[in-house]
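Ticket 4471: requesting a sanity check on a complex prediction with cytidine-5'-triphosphate. Repro inputs:
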Amino acid sequence: MLKNKNILIGITGGIAAYKAAELTRAFIKKGAHVKVIMTKNAAEFITPLTLRTLSRNPVYMDMFSLTGDFSIAHISLAREADVVVIAPATANVIGKIAGGLADDLLTTSVMATTAPVLICPAMNTNMYENPIVKGNLAKLAENGYRILEPAYGELAERTEGAGRLPEVPEIVDEVESILTAKDLAGEKIIVTAGPTQEPFDPVRFITNHSSGKMGYAVAAMARRRGADVVLISGPTALPKPRGVKFIPVTTALEMRDAVMKHLKDATVVIKAAAVADYRPATRAASKIKKKEGPLEIMLERNPDIIAEIGKKKGRRVVVGFAMETDNLIENAAAKLKNKNMDLIVANDLNQEGAGFQTDTNVITILDRKGGREALPLLDKTEVADRILDRVKKIL
Ligand code: CTP
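Returned structure tokens:
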């Protein structure tokens, strides 16, 4: 997504400037070309050498340098940027941009660029809540600048409040989102993810190895592409994706209820969850104590959520997943047909890089007409994108 994109990072003089180093690294890791402009005050907090080393480019600070090449820095930097990110953005730089001032390399470049500009304010809470700063941010937003709300938490002076620079992955996600075409705008997408847990006493349950990574990637990508996303998730260790309506559930029955509650408005349902097919028939009120001899737990069937959706599919696009150890394509094709899906994403647990806990997946997408698209080993984010491409085609 960020591969070969030109990202211009503007760093201004706040204590969070040190996080810009990590941000630069994160962009480089994703294959972007990064150039950095630092204000004079930023260099009080972090050295240009650090940013030069991490960005693998000269660091730009001076409007009137005679040592660089012949191009006019603020014009060339502004022109080549696909996106500009100011992180951290102080009250001062926010005020200058909002007031139309351009008195250093960063503010002139921002003035000269036609690329989207993401401003990440970071400052003391009282400064951030100052009505003049608020007003300046509102004015910037009205003029098409993107503002990433600061996070709430501990600040440099040991007080708590709003004003922290959001964590690096959040800034990266926002930039990726800015650069993503909103081709799913207007769609309402339900994504289910993770395992379900089926308890048989207050301390024990039956579950499976699902990590939720595939479903979370689909939810995050659908949101980036402009959809309204409801993510219904069994218990996972993953951070909630930003910007989606998140509904945590535990059992298959809870997942079913949550899905049915949101189904009416949905235009797409993507069922990446590994729903337990069976649940213990009874749930003991107290912890079951061990006794001599074996313990029998009677299981009963859970409802098949996607099959239920298939029955009242209407114009919705329904995508299921099939994880198999044997006869992948035959089994997946049968599920697609029996459960009235539009697409089924089949993955073979025996393949290296596919399956539950990995960050990658190897999938084949089957459709109703018998079409098969086998994808190579890809990152789950990329897999999510490819699945959504197919959904988009059907829509
Ligand atoms: N699924 C569901 N509700 C269930 C079981 C499965 O909605 N109770 C959905 C899954 O989210 C997935 C698809 O059905 O999208 C296929 O799940 P899978 O467990 O592989 O298929 P089953 O039909 O349950 O077949 P089997 O367990 O026999 O392989």
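Notes from triage: The chain has 14 helices and 22 strands. Leaving this open until the requester confirms.
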